[in-house]
Structure formats: structure tokens, C-alpha cells
Amino acid sequence: MIIRKLFFFIALLTGLVSCQKPLDNFNLSSPDGKLSVGIALIDNKLNYQIDSGDIESIGISELEIFPNASVTILEASEIENDDSWNPVWGQQSSIRNNYKELQLDIDIDGVSGKLLARAYNEGVAFRFVLDEGEKPAEAIFKCEYALADGSNYYTPAGESEPLGPVDFKGLTDYLQEKNGKKRKISVPLVVESPNQSYMALLESDLYAANGIDPMQLDITGTEGRILSGNKVELGEEEWTSPWRVILFGKSAGDLVVNTVPINLATPSKLENTDWIKPGKTLWDWRVHGYTAPDGFEYGINTESYFRFIDFAAEKGIDYFLIDDSWYKEVTKGHFELSDKLDLQKVIDYAAEKKVDLMLYYDRRHGEYGDEELFPYYQSLGMKGIKYGFMGSNVDFTREAIQQSAASKLLIDFHDGPVPFTGIRRTYPNAITREYCHAQQDSRRAFTPESFIKMALINAITGPLDMNNGNFDLTGINNGLRQKGPRETNTYFSTVASEAARTLIIFSGLVCIPDAPEAYEAKADLFEFIQKLPIGKWDESQVLHSKIGEYITTARRHGKEWFIGSVYNQQGGALDIDLDFLEADQEYDITYYEDTKETHCKTNPEAYQVRNGKVRKGDVIKAVMAPGGGHCMWIRPTDIGKDSN
Questions:
Q1: pLDDT band at 224 (very low <50, low <70, confident <90, very high)
Q2: CA 78 to chain centre
Q3: Does the keyword Coiled coil feature in the UniProt annotation (predicted)?
Q4: CB of 92 within 8 A of CB of 538?
Q5: How far apart are CA 308 and CA 319, in angstroms?
Q6: Which of 10, 135, 391, 459 is the most exposed, having the fewest neighbouring CB atoms within 10 Å of its CB?
Q7: pTM of this prediction?
Q8: What is the mean pLDDT of the chain?
Q9: What CATH number is attached to the domain comprising 191?
């Protein structure tokens, strides 16, 4: 550590002596002074270093936009910003945007531009802006990260359990070719430092960057050195890169509620957002083949959809999402509707019951033409589109979000989407996306450990559509669904855990995937899901977090608190301190929890619901079965049970 810092100081001093320029090194601190960012030219290359107090968080690392180009710093200026803004929906109702920013006007082998560096109390970010004029046709936005030896690493792995914890060698081994193809590290890369603090490496505001690939990470071959890169296609117009973002937290959970990525995003481009309504949705896809207690079997038909709509209307569920097979064929400008159901009857019935509808679209089935797709969905009275298999193209994704907004449609991306961190600020109709393994997707179940990892890794990038909230766990495990896991008895969870997961995973659209009758059979437990004010949170905290082991999330709406905890297959207990409640106020509390007999493999549907009173400073011991969960709904006594 000392050697690195000394080397950095010598490099700066050498640059000053040899060049005799005052514009070769700079220091930028966070508003609270706890983070320090050093930026320097070393051999005409931009380098940075980040210290957190007396600890070097990131050693000397290079920033580059044109390979091997020589950089000259022409001018420097610094500003400080401290204001707040209100998102249309989110984990917080008000977000403070407090940072210091250093702007360096630079020349890169004759191309003029800027390097922007921002320091927040909880993170650091870098961005290049290239001025108008002639520049190379292609560039690669590179950012190097010299991380501490002995760090542990975690990264998403598509529709599989996230990787980690692995050391640097484990990360190197992971990148080796599989089936003839070299792997890449997806964002965010979560780094657990030897001092057990946490960092996340990712990007924000892809919206502002045209002609760029999504950020991926690789290793340089040197211990602890990670490299991020985006290939860029440039023209003669001004070009702005996304932000390279480094988040800091004392715990893994701190990273999930960190507001730096959304603060870095372009402010909203929509003048009117009144039509954007986050909420919960029922979904037909995983229910096909389910036989209700009255003998009715669910499928792709009008009668099944009427049942979903009736339940949504009765329970105040905002949406009903109709997945694939509502159409038979897609040609440009035309959907040939399925003869399995009368879609117009379903649309009319939903309107009568005041339940909004969403429709799926699978781009592999044929290209309708996006300039016609979204207006067509709007003409059907849809409020949103679930867009499947649209690919990982940044420009295409941006255009789809913009076109859906023009038709006043929410959009939910599935099947390997671009994470597009921060886009919910710029286009709040980008309501969620499946940047994870959604439960039972590819007809595989994920484990409690996988859930906790995704909740603390994938979720750093923003809202996730993970399809939690199954109550008929025994039926699903017995293979009584057409689209349940191919391998029976592989879905390890408890119904209390399923309820907790719908709170823990932040999303603007919470898709609950089970049958109405499965929820009605456990109506007292379903109350927790029913009461959640999705997307309307005033405050969110992650109270406990250990990747792969447990998580507790608390969210506030007005004076009410909803708290959800999940444990891995070891099971355990977490002490939840209610210090966040108001003093001199009595609260009613409802517990939705596992019982002593509950077990994720042998008795997943055992649960209990009980009521009590609590006050500020009370400590609740949330006891969870193996693979289990625990939920609490807390509200001031004078609000009453039926408040929301």
C-alpha cells in the first residue's frame, strides 16, 4: 500500500519536473472529504487513484478513449453541486444529488474534449466528452481498476447463479473459454476488499452514448487489475461516453440502495409522466396446467384470463400480463391472433373490471416493425409491453424505450437485456427488466443462495423482473405445471420467503406468477404482497446483508414500514432493530413467517401470521427456516389495519 502511494507521488513529481506544467495532476475530494480521487498525467496518459480515508481503494489506474494516444490537459475547473430531485417512482421519493466535479479540457492526439470526474460520498465516476470535428472512426472507452490483493469477486452470470466469491485466480479461471467462446465479466463486478468493505464496478447513462456496446470487464493478467471496455463508433458530431461508476459501501446491501448511478443518469425526457404507474401484475405463463380446487384447468384461453382479471380486480392488483401465444404469427405490420382465446373479449372484460393489461412480444417470431409495434399495442388499449429476445444492442434498446414512451407504454425487457443502469430516471416508462435468472426461467429453479446473490449483485444495476411470489410450491415441485421446472423437487423456498422476495427485489413492476386460487388459499399471507405500494417508496434500507447467506430489506411508504428477510438453506435468525420508527408512537405489526416445522425442501408451505405492538428501539428476532423468510408490516396504531 505504501509503495503504491509513494510510486504515485514520484510519478506526479516526475511529470511536474519534466514537463514544468501546472496542469499535470489534480486532487478531487468527496463532499464529506472521506473519498479522495487523484488524477495525473503519467507519460502523457491519464491515470487516477482513489483513497478512502487512509486506505487505498484503487491504485494507479489508466483512463483511455483512444488506444496509445498522447493526452495534454489544457484547462481545469471544479464545481460543487448540492440539490435534490423527485423520481417518478423508485426506492426513494427524494434523492439528494451532492457531488464535486472536476472538468479537464484535454487534447487527445489532436482531438479536443473533456474528462469529467465526479466524487460523491458513496462513489466516483468518470466520463469522456469528445467535441465536434474529425476523430477516429472507432474508439474503445477503457477504464482500469487496480484493486487490492486478496479481494473477493462476484459477478452476474446471465440466467445462472452469480459467480462468487472467487479470488483473482478464480476470476481468471472463469474467463477461460467455454465451448470455444471466451467469457466476459458482466456488470456489476462486486469487490469485497480484504478490510471487508465493498465496491461495485459498473456504468450509468448509456442513454447519452450513441454507437457503443454495453460495458464488459476483463482482466489484464496482473494480479488485482481489472479492465472495462466499450467499443465505440464515432462520427463528427459531439460524443458523450457513459459514466464509469465505482460505488463504495460498508456492506453489500449499501450498494443496492446507492443513489449515485441514478444521479448520474440524464434527467427525465418526458414532460408528462402521469400515465406511468408502477404496480403489481398477475401473469399467466407459469400457471398453464394448474388445476384449481373446482377442477378448472388453466391454459391459454378466454376463461382462464377472466379468472385472472376477476382476482386482480378483487385484490387491487394493478395489471394482468398476457405472455406468449396470444398470437400465432407475426409479419411486418400484422399479428395473426391465436384462435385459442378471444383477445377482444379479454380486453373488454378487463376494461369493465378496471384492470390494466400488458402483452408480451417475442421478436424471434417475426419483426412487426417497431415503428408500428408500439402504436398497435396502444390501439389495443395495452398499458405496457413485455419485450422478449430483443438483444443486447444499446441503440436498439434506447429506441425501443423512446418509442414505447411515445405510445404511453411501460416496457419490461426480458431474455438477456442491456442493464441500462439509470434509464428509469431518463425514461421512467422503462419499468423493469430480467437482468437475472427469473424464477423457473429456462424451466430451471434458482436456489435461496442464488436469490440472495442476485438481490445483492444484479440488483445494483436497477429494477429486476424476477417473478417471485409462488405459493403453490408443493404443486410446482410435483410437476403439476406445464412450464414449471423440468426437474421436479428442485424449487427450494418457503411461502414466507416468497412473500419477502417480492419486497426485497426492487422493481417498478412486481410480477407475481402463481394462480389466483393459490393466493386465495393463503389469503392472510397474500395480504403482505397485496399491501405493498410498489414503486412508491419514500425510503429504502438494507439492514442485513451477506452475499449468498441472508438479506433484510426495509422500505417505508408514508409512516408504514414493510420489512422482508430471506435466509439460505442453513436457516437462521436476524435481529432487526426498529430504531428507524418514530419516537412516542405505538405501532401495529403483522408478522408473516415460517413455523418451527417449515423447511424449504420438506415442508415449504407451512407459515403463520400473527399480530402485535412495537415501538421505536424494539428488536425483533426474525427466525427463518432453512431456505425460509420473514415479513413484517408495521403501521402507526391510529392508521388502522386497512390503510395502505
A1: confident
A2: 31
A3: no
A4: yes
A5: 10
A6: 10
A7: 0.95
A8: 93
A9: 2.70.98.10
User: Using CB atoms within 10 A of its CB, is residue 123 exposed (0-12), middle (13-18) or buried (19+)?
Assistant: buried
For residue 192, is it within any domain?
Answer: yes
What's CA 209's distance to the chain center, in Å? 20
Domain tally for the chain? 1
Which residues fall within 8 angstroms of residue 128, CB to CB, at 6 or more apart?
65, 113, 114, 115, 116, 141, 240, 241
Give the C-alpha separation, 401 to 229, whole Å: 24
Quick one: cell of 588?
Answer: 401495529
- Domain range for residue 34? 2-264
pLDDT tens column, 315-362: 999 999 999 989 988 888 788 999 999 999 999 999 999 999 999 999
CA 475, CA 297: separation in Å to the nearest integer?
13
Q: Fill in the DSSP letter of residue 215.
A: P
For cell 498525467, the residue is 41
| 312 located within any domain | no
What pLDDT was estimated at residue 220? Answer: 84
Q: Where are the alpha helices (DSSP H) in 280-382?
A: 302-315, 343-353, 370-379
Under 8 Å CB-to-CB from 434, ≥6 apart: which residues? Answer: 412, 413, 414, 415, 417, 441, 464, 465, 466
pLDDT computed for residue 22 by the predictor: 56
The DSSP bridge partners found for residue 575 are 621
- Over residues 490-542, the pLDDT tens digits come to 999 999 999 999 999 999 999 999 999 999 999 999 999 999 999 999 999 99
CB of 64 closer than 8 Å to CB of 133? no
52, 199, 315 from 192: Cα distances, Å: 14, 7, 42
Tell me how far apart the alpha carbons of residues 538 and 637 are, in angstroms, rounded to a whole number: 20
Contact 116, 97 (CB under 8 A): no
Q: What are phi and psi of 613, to 5 degrees?
A: -125, 140
Cell of 38: 487523484
112-156 tens-digit pLDDT: 999 999 999 999 999 999 999 998 888 899 999 999 999 999 999
Of residues 456 and 3, more confidently modeled: 456
Tell me whether residue 443 is in a domain. Answer: no
* Residues 6 or more apart in contact with residue 291 via CB below 8 angstroms: 297, 298, 480
Q: Does 470 have pLDDT greater than 60?
A: yes
- CA-angle at 485, arms to 597 and 295, nearest 5°: 75
Distances in Å between the Cα of 579 and the Cα atoms of 504, 520, 615, 639 are: 20, 34, 9, 20
Does residue 631 lie in a domain region? Answer: no
Q: Cell numbers at residue 463, please?
A: 429494477
Q: Which residue has the cell 488506444?
A: 67
Distance CA 158, CA 97 (A): 31
What is the model's pLDDT at position 1? 33
CB 197 within 8 A of CB 248: yes
d(CA 300, CA 482): 11
Residue 379: left (phi > 0), alpha (psi -120 to 50), or beta?
Answer: alpha
